[in-house]
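Reviewers of the previous submission asked for a worked example of the structure-prediction workflow described in the proposal, so we include one complete record here. The input consisted solely of the amino acid sequence. No template or homolog information was supplied to the procedure at any stage.
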Amino acid sequence: MHDRTESQELLARVPEITITFWILKFFTTAMGESTSDALVFHMNPYLAVMIGAIGFAIALGLKLRLRKYTHLSYWLTALMVAIFGTMAADVVHVAIGIPYRISTTFFALMLTAVFIAWYKSEKTLSIHSVNSTRREIFYWAAVFTTFALGTAAGDLTASTLRLGYFSSGILFGVLIAIVGIAYRISLSFSGGRHNTRNAVIAYWTAYILTRPFGASFADWMDKPVSVGGLGLGDLRVTLFLSIPIMFFLWLLVTGRVGRRRMRIGADGNSGEAIEAK
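From that input alone, the workflow returned the following structure tokens.
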């Protein structure tokens, strides 16, 4: 057991994993899909990708400059990752013409490479250890790649495998539920004791699956009826999805939910929860 002093302890620079986190993750993921479509199909696609890249770079740059977690900065960055990550996957397929099977495999290998580099450098993939700029860069590299992978995987099931958008959403929702149940079962076998490795695997698996889960339902709402959607249009869906995002952000910012943050020790392990500033 290491003795920790206040100077040795840092605050995690990413949010605690709560139900509010997953709700916001779903809605920002879905909004990233519809916003990307709105930009690409309603203006010059090359200009749209440039806007997405600039927005992502600005949001990430501002986030990395902060030495502590803030709700608005984190979720703005997450939304820009969702938008630009979607564009990156779409460019690979639409502009370059690479099939979804190949792009999905490529992004899966890319994500594996990010995780390997992260683990070799930091000896952990736990988000509770993200308490420095270097670790946060690894974190966002992984997040960006999960969005590109999830976009390609969602399009693979919906289009190439012909499941359709709604059925694809249901499929990924079931897979997320299986991950959650498996993690709960692992807890019961360990007598309720937390296992870092199982938690890391469960978190990142669910995180990857949440991308095609949210994107599939966004596509189902905005795509034309002729291709299995509801035909609401990407602009309407984007505006609709912004409402729950702003509501849950308001809950976080005003302290009605998620007031506690995790303090990280010098050894990289999570410590006690403290009141958020």
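Helices lie at 19-42, 45-65, 71-95, 100-122, 133-160, 165-189, 196-222, 234-253. We consider this example representative of the routine output the project will generate in years two and three.
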